[in-house]
Design brief:
The structure is a single chain. This protein is an alpha+beta fold. Helix 1 runs parallel beside helix 2 and helix 2 runs parallel beside helix 5. The radius of gyration is 17 Å and the shape is globular. This is 3-oxoacyl-ACP synthase.
């Protein structure tokens, strides 16, 4: 399907590596995600203390998005967000269930409960970057570029957004995979389903 819009930037986080537009910006072979993502945060010189209170899905999404949004001028821009995954907030849901089942706790953990919806990670991005546009989070069995393409094209063609940050952010137990990309009028890559698939698989 043809589009008059383009992909301006993209990021990946998987296999102990973080990349922006195909270039690796951080690499750490530690197998522990918590240690990996904290090191990545520090390596990028980020200053957002709330990061350390986030659940793993939000940390993953936050860094993948921040790399892109920091690389562009987004002042006064109407940037929508469309994300997806297959595990929803399952990793955090398990931890919340454990806090309920713990006989030593009288009350379940509210700090964990707040992250028992996958779209909370979108809220963290919006707070940091002061974004007020449309946003959605979808659950699929696998990465679904066709659906993301349709949603993005609609938002841009109807002028409900000037740019759309979209992609796949999945975290389950120790398995993680993030691929985000920014679509707008300008950019070096075509916004087609074929190109989205190729970018997703390229790292």
């Amino acid at each position: 399907m043809n589009s008059k819009f383009n992909i301006n930037a993209y990021s990946h986080i998987r296999n102990d590596k973080i990349s922006l537009n195909g270039d690796i910006v951080f690499e750490d072979e530690t197998k522990d995600f918590s240690a990996f993502i904290k090191s990545a945060y520090k390596s990028q010189g980020m200053d957002y203390p709330k990061f350390f209170k986030m659940d793993n899905l939000s940390k993953l999404t936050f860094i993948a998005a921040d790399l892109i949004l920091q690389s562009i001028s987004n002042s006064e821009e109407n940037i929508a967000i469309i994300l997806s995954n297959k595990a929803s907030s399952l990793d955090t849901d398990r931890k919340y269930q454990e806090s309920i089942s713990d006989s030593n706790n009288y009350f379940p953990s509210p700090s964990v409960f707040v992250y028992t919806l996958p779209n909370i990670c979108i809220g963290e991005i919006c707070i940091k970057h002061q974004l007020f546009s449309e946003n959605s989070f979808f659950i699929f069995d696998n990465f679904n570029p066709h659906h993301l393409w349709i949603q993005t094209e609609h938002l841009l063609k109807t002028k409900k957004a000037n740019k759309v940050l979209c992609g796949w952010v999945d975290f389950d137990d120790s398995s993680y995979d993030a691929f985000l990309y920014l679509v707008e009028e300008h950019g070096d890559l075509n916004h087609t389903i074929k190109d989205i698939k190729q970018l997703y698989l390229c790292q």
